[in-house]
Design brief:
It is a single chain. This protein is an alpha+beta fold. The protein has 2 domains: about 5-65, no CATH class; about 85-285, no CATH class. It contains 9 helices and 12 strands. Strand 9 and strand 10 form a beta hairpin. Helix 2 crosses helix 3. It is globular and about 65 Å long.
Amino acid sequence: MSEEIYKRIADLTMDHWKRSLATQDISPALAKFARRLVQHGHLPNLDTKEIDQILKGEAGEKKPVASTPPNRVFNPAGTFKIQRLDQYAWQVTPTIRKRNLIKRLNPIDGRHNIHLESATIRECSLSWYKQHRLIQIKDSAWKNRKLTLYYLIGTNGQLYRLNGTSPPIHMINKEEPIQLEAGNALSYLCFFCFFVRGAEGPFYLLESKSDPILKECLAVPESKANGETALKIIEGAVKPARFEGIDDKGRFLCDAVCFYSNALFLVNFAIASNGMIEMLDDEPIAGDLPFRIDAPIA
């Protein structure tokens, strides 16, 4: 990372630190991030005692053990990684709970019935939600074997269908409210872009040619002819998503390669603390790929 970028991030972090200090709302993640900048010779005016106090408080605080680990991957070297849906800490839903969900949901959209014997129902927690869990439903008896349905369920049992539109997510973000920080911003971005879709499908954040979603794309017979050529193009175009810092509006800035329709775009995102996401800029980097993502959720 260049010195110029370090200085920009340091300035933005210092501004965010001052505003957070005024409201006594400095997260441990922000404290760790600030300490790394201090170690690199940046933020010379920051009182390291404040950082140590916050981190000491975090270490001394006793937290309940969660049944499912939060979906966040933190690299001490200073980078934050995406956790995709296939990497979530999924747990099989117990039979009694499964029966109850089937009874409540059938028939879905008036045509999809969940069958106790053939359906697989799993759930997991999400680090940006403390009161809602993600439920995934598949059924081998459905005509479209790729169809996978998703719901968010609250502690009160209320279900919210994730159907490709943004209102359910924004409703929960406001209701909870959502808890975003540097360590989970990229994973939330991946979650949001998969579940809020355009006319051509999800805005899938693609980081490498070994992503399982590409294997599914190549499994389609008509995609195999030019598949190897496409993989070479993708290999030269994709790169890991990056968390670039916090701007003067308190937004998390991220860059990622987005696989939408049959093309790749390099996109600059800004994620507000309330979960709203804005595409600041996008640059086409590959097009006319011989396949597109087929991952129906409705």
